[in-house]
Specification:
184 residues; mainly alpha; de novo design (two linked rop proteins); rod-shaped
């Protein structure tokens, strides 16, 4: 009788631990998905601002069409990216083209003084800050999730229920980290 009680207690403890570990993995996975959704919201906002910014610049910098076309092309690629890695790479290219666009704007004092351009630039800067914060939160969430599915004993549950590592949102191309070079 005592042996049966001990076995039942062990089974109960093991069952509670299993449920707790599984629920913890679900919570972390949902946190990662929420963090990605927050990045997606900010990136969509940035993509929505870009056409207005490009149209404003077009009026002042007609001979800078190559730069403007690169910005629009980078925006379109970013919007069509599917995976985290593709999206990160596309967004990093877009960030680089936007830096070039703002560097070009320095050559046009009337453009820099344009209220619409200044408002759009301020909104884009604010959005960039939100994107950076969202990326950091996402990467922290991914790190917590990946750690949880790799450490013992929760890795046993993660493997049993098909939890897999998530991809970080990171800059892989070192050239994108550098400031653009602009010469007139």
């Amino acid at each position: 009788m005592i042996a049966l009680i001990v076995i039942a207690a062990i089974a109960l403890i093991l069952g509670l631990w299993l449920a707790g570990a599984y629920n913890g993995l679900i919570r972390l996975r949902n946190q990662v998905e929420n963090a990605w959704a927050q990045i997606d919201v900010q990136l969509k906002r940035r993509c929505d601002l870009i056409p207005n910014l490009v149209e404003t610049v077009k009026g002042y910098a007609k001979h800078e069409s190559g730069t403007l076309e690169k910005v629009i092309q980078a925006r379109n690629i970013a919007m069509s990216a599917k995976t985290v890695g593709e999206r990160a790479e596309a967004e990093n290219v877009l960030t680089g083209t936007l830096k070039t666009l703002f560097a070009v704007s320095e050559a046009y004092p009337d453009l820099k003084a344009n209220a619409n351009f200044m408002r759009l630039q301020e909104e884009l800067t604010s959005t960039e800050n939100k994107v950076a914060f969202s990326r950091q939160f996402y990467n922290d969430s991914v790190m917590n999730f990946n750690t949880k599915i790799e450490v013992f004993p929760s890795n046993l549950i993660a493997n049993s229920f098909g939890f897999t590592r998530r991809e970080f949102f990171e800059v892989k191309d070192e050239a994108i980290r550098e400031a653009p070079k602009v010469s007139f």
